[in-house]
């Protein structure tokens, strides 16, 4: 009997919903293999959507920034947290309502596009505050936001990412600035972007994707948003979170798959098969033993990780895993998948 070849990730999914910072780039520095992966996906007929919480750029500006790191993109391929925030606020507020923008010009532009009136100073008729990351955000603008929130304005954050990956390391993200206003006002904002599922749901619906794959580097935004949207997710190890964090995560932040980067989207991608306490993935396997997991294969082999994640979905579906990994000898090791 001739064994059918394993499908690739691109065979298994009809759309890739890609995070930007930490997944495709670090600031103005490209992440290796990312540009080639995007072009490979397009050539294979897979829809590519860029889903970002970054509120500092319009879709046009984001497309121009991707060009700097070697990735061609069109504005209509983006879904951003400011776009989602603008739609949600437009649905909630009267046309022309004043929205105090605690963020940059691109966030204000999104408010205008949906018929709202962005302002930068508090007044009695400010109906809402929208907050998004900007490199120029200062104390004065934060103070204006605090005044408006305290007098009852509705508060929406584009996202609550604590950090932002840059070419120099992790910098404070919008969540850090949101924390300042939360501490100053005692209030809690509504959140438009990841990990809320709306961004992914809108993108999948607008692009008619039936089997989307969410790809990102953060468990608390990309992966949680995918889980909440009921979509498969891939954690790439090029940004914030790593293998240990992923295996120990609460189920709502547990990825479907883990890969070092985007280099092998077209490579054979065997899926794990679970039989009771054992999961096999290609030539490697993992066994559940009273809360611990014995792995037969290299611990950093993505196939081993897929087998381990499959066991966690089966045996630790309601809580974070607290056991230990136990490497076991593999009589005839197959080359590790990279």
TrEMBL record:
Entry GO terms, CC: cytoplasm
Alphabetized GO MF terms: phosphatase activity
Pfam families, per the entry: Hydrolase_6, Hydrolase_like
InterPro entries documented for this protein: HAD-like_sf, HAD-SF_hydro_IIA, HAD_sf
NCBIfam families: HAD-SF-IIA
PANTHER family linked: 4-NITROPHENYLPHOSPHATASE-RELATED, D-GLYCEROL 3-PHOSPHATE PHOSPHATASE
Protein name from the UniProt record: Haloacid dehalogenase
Organism this protein belongs to: Brachybacterium vulturis
Lineage, uppermost ranks: Bacteria, Bacillati, Actinomycetota, Actinomycetes, Micrococcales
């Amino acid at each position: 009997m001739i064994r059918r070849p394993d499908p690739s990730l691109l065979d298994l999914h009809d759309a890739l919903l890609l995070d930007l910072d930490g997944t495709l780039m670090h600031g103005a520095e490209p992440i290796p293999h990312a540009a080639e992966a995007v072009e490979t996906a397009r050539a294979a007929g897979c829809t590519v959507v860029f889903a970002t919480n970054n509120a500092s750029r319009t879709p046009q500006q984001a497309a121009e920034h991707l060009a700097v790191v070697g990735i061609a993109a069109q504005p209509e391929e983006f879904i951003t947290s400011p776009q989602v925030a603008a739609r949600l606020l437009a649905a909630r507020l009267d046309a022309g309502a004043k929205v105090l923008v605690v963020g940059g010009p691109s966030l204000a532009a999104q408010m205008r596009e949906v018929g709202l009136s962005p302002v930068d100073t508090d007044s009695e008729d400010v109906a809402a505050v929208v907050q998004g990351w900007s490199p120029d955000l200062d104390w004065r603008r934060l103070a204006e936001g605090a005044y408006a929130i305290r007098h009852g304005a509705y508060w929406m954050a584009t996202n609550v990412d604590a950090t932002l990956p840059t070419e120099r390391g992790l910098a404070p993200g919008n969540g850090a600035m949101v924390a300042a206003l939360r501490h100053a006002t005692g209030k809690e904002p509504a959140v438009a972007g990841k990990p809320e599922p709306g961004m992914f749901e809108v993108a999948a619906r607008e692009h008619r994707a039936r089997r989307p794959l969410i790809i990102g580097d953060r468990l608390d935004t990309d992966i949680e948003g995918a889980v909440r949207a009921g979509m498969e997710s891939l954690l790439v190890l090029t940004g914030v979170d790593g293998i240990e964090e992923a295996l120990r995560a609460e189920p709502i932040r547990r990825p479907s798959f883990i890969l070092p980067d985007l280099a092998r989207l077209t490579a054979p991608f065997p899926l794990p098969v679970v039989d009771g306490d054992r999961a096999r993935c290609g030539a490697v396997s993992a066994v559940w033993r009273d809360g611990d997991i014995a792995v037969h294969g290299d611990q950093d082999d993505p196939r081993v990780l897929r087998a381990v994640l499959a066991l966690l979905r089966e045996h630790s579906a309601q809580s974070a895993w607290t056991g230990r990994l136990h490497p076991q000898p593999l009589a005839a090791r197959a080359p590790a998948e990279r």
